[in-house]
Amino acid sequence: MKLIVGLGNPGKQYEHTRHNMGYDAIDEFAEMVGADFDRNKFNGDFSIVKDDRFPDDFILAKPLTFMNLSGEFVRPLMDYFKIPVEDVLVIYDDMALKPGNIRLRPGGSHAGHNGIKNIIQMTGTEQIKRIRVGIGEPLHTGVDWVLGKASGEEADALKEGCHKAALALRDYLLHGFEYAMNHYN
Question: Active site includes 113?
């Protein structure tokens, strides 16, 4: 079984903000496969997906811990379902990428992103597969930028980035991470 985690902050005030690209991408993929987040445990929502179109069962998950404590949901969920770190993939926003762009990586540092930083701390490894969804460089302070909502062409680009991330996630589950990485990077 694989674990796919979309990072974001819970609550209406954070819906569709730049920092919630992980939530938005995983929501789009859940809609593609007809999954709903019908389970709640370890301070997060998740869905167990068993779909004959995919070679492996998988869990789609969204922490409700707020971004900076994402690992406090991911680690217990991994332990409960006995999912090794090599079968975990995390989707989150990245200011270093232009809106609409995505980047897949098999691991690496947190690069200042507190959500993935906490997951790295809780799992003890940087070797966590990831899909980073571009939100662009801030026009003002980082916190205001990531917690803000885009409009116009930028909002369209962010939606396109989430769509690409959902497609990359589909291809990862169907064909493996290397295939998806080669196709989308």
Answer: no
